[in-house]
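User: Here's a chain of 855 residues. Predict its fold as tokens.
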Amino acid sequence: MPNYDQTVGSRYHIYNSLFLNLPFRNVSRTGILLPLLQQYCTTGFAKGKSADEILKVFFKELVPTLTEEEQFDLLFSFIQYIERQVALFDSVEDAAFEQVHNLNGKGTVPALLLRTKIEKKEADLKSRLDQFSLRIVLTAHPTQFYPGNVLGILTDLENAIRVSDVNQINLLLQQLGKTGFINQNKPTPYDEALSLCWYLENVFYHSIPEIVNSLAAGLEIPLPEWKNNRLIVIGFWPGGDRDGNPFVTSEITVKVASRLQESILKCYYKDIRLLRRRLTFHGIAERITAIEQKVYGLVFRQQKNYTSSDELLVELNEVRNRLVAEHDGLFLELLDALIIKVRIFGFHFAALDIRQDSRKHDYVWMSILDKLSASKKSISSAEFQKLPSHEQINYLLSLKANLVFVDFDDALVNETIQSVLAIRKIQQENGAAGCHRYVISNCQSALHLMEVFVLARLLIGKEEVLDLDIVPLFETIDDLAHAPAIMEELYAIPAYREHLARRKNHQTIMLGFSDGTKDGGYLRANWSIFRAKEDLTAVSRRFDLKALFFDGRGGPPARGGGNTHDFYASLGDTIEHEEVQVTVQGQTISSNFGKIVSSKYNLEQLISAGLEGSVFARTEMQMTEADKNLLDHLAELAYLAYLDLKHHPKFVPYLEKVTPLSFFGDTNIGSRPVKRNGAEGLKFEDLRAIPFVGSWAMMKQNIPGFYGVGSALNELQKEGKGDQLKELYQNSLFFRTLLGNSMMSLTKTFYEATAYLGDDPEFGEFWKKMHAEFLLSSSQTLDISGLSELMGNNPTIRQSVHLREQIVLPLIAIQQSSLMNLRNLNEHNKKHEQRYRKLIIRSMFGIINAARNSA
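Assistant: Prediction complete.
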């Protein structure tokens, strides 16, 4: 493979020089001074200076004549310049994707097909492909700071870089210079949905069918005989995820579903128009024209020309039959390409999930019971709460009330009922695949699942039949531990068991990495989820059920991100793996799935990871019980170390006073509030995982991605188990991936930027505690892995991280200096308070964007 520095680093530096020629005010001065500031930051931090000291020396030595006002202006100019440097670097790296990544290498479809042929496993792969499904769920969680118009420029910039069109690159950089990088207002949930529709229309609509075509061709399966239309499913949370987001209403949910249908129909319409230019034959042209007109009427005139995608498929297949019979199948491949798209995407494009917190359902049911009790149709909520849990479940199942016609005074009750009724409306318009899952956050009992099951059955069930999957979400360490017992109680309920029998005996279970890490630290969360999956698999199999695990992952390792495909490839036979389901959000959508080529590559990696273990003989040794017991002990030690930090009296005050946490709500990147509870003051349990992890990332401390790892490894080494750990690292892909992702977090740390806090009278001891664990985790992971440097076995990502960190180093200094000044306002600097706040917020955009998976 070509050298990363040549394909990305050198090209970036060449095109970066074009910024100096942009026809903007003082741009040359900014461009000349910025590399000097970068050098001042590098040497200053290395000498232990604070960011504020570095900036003061920089201004005194290089631009001593600037007034305070002009100094602030220059800092804002630096921020704008760096934002565009980051955008340029993204485009250069994306343009070099095929050179940096081996598109026929390990984990790709070509490699999968080649191995299948060599090992003569074609029949096994075909059989597995008939059942397997990969579900990529695009969430509403905002970690992407680029507005839509900037994303469009970056797409054009990438294309210009691919062909080395310097004139076009220069023009696009000028456009970037004049285009705002921040949203002036918070987006609505509908705005968030629209931004993700861009990826559906421009990326997934092309990449998913291409993967299906590759597999079908490689296995010599004619496309019409391809059986699995669910090989890759796109899930969708914007407009459906109302957990902690009061702005998501049933009206928004229906509006988003309608927009999804409009998007897919427009894609079909474009393809049909292109098809009509080729299928000009007698008996064919007329039919294609008629189909085009019907789809046009459906999209632009709201004419009900088709009630489902099946009707469109019938007409397309009629055209296909005539094309084969009467015209020798000329251009048949173009028609088949459209047919497979309609089979995959239907009239829904993406499957909209509904999500709500269990505590909201508790409240809704108490209100419903009290309302029904007033008319003698039910017991009261007080009487209900006195019943044992199994009797509460039986009582709810016995209810026969028609809730649609009951007049409730409470807004939450009415909205919850309307959100369930919206599911039926979407299924009628977009098809059952358009909305068929209800996710319950904070699920802590079988009753929590039955509350949703009974409510949905009363509102949208058809003679006891409910076309809806009820999905529990287990997140905290305690919830993960209790999950198997909860599901066992649920499976024992006859009414629910009958429901599952009508759902192919499949039960989807969501496991949350983000809140698990926030609650119990990196190692404990990941290992608790592994153990929970084993136990949930065993419980489900005892009831002749198949568990489908849905992983709630974020971008960074601290939220379950990193090299996720290796995690799936490493799961053994003790964990059900018929499907891979995973959330993707914010930066990860744009960096991993923002282009057709990167989308195909990353989808193929996940598909291969999900298929290889059941098709081929495993080359990796499976973890023994002794290995798992070792990891139990390791995870427990890491948990204790993390709890020692989390329960430190300075933990929450540090987040509130020192980090940029409180500024996340001012970035206008998402519709959802930073905290679940809108009350004043910071409570750890109400804090969202994204601002929690993102704040540590911007401080370049990355606590959730490594804290406790070093202490746990060190303790086991002291117990004489170092050799066992080293052997496990060599033999277990799971353990290698676990430590490898933590190394990614360690690589992205830069404690030199906050070294000044070591002398802080309030937080000095706390900072030293974190720094000591960073040093210990770095040395211990290197010792166990045998690597000479962090991420030494992944040089491409390591180089990318290094170059990105260099670009944003001045931003880190500017933000840290502003945070320092805000904490130490006095008579001299208090007049600049608002400027410091603005500098902190503006710095956030570049720092987060540069990291690509930091929140």
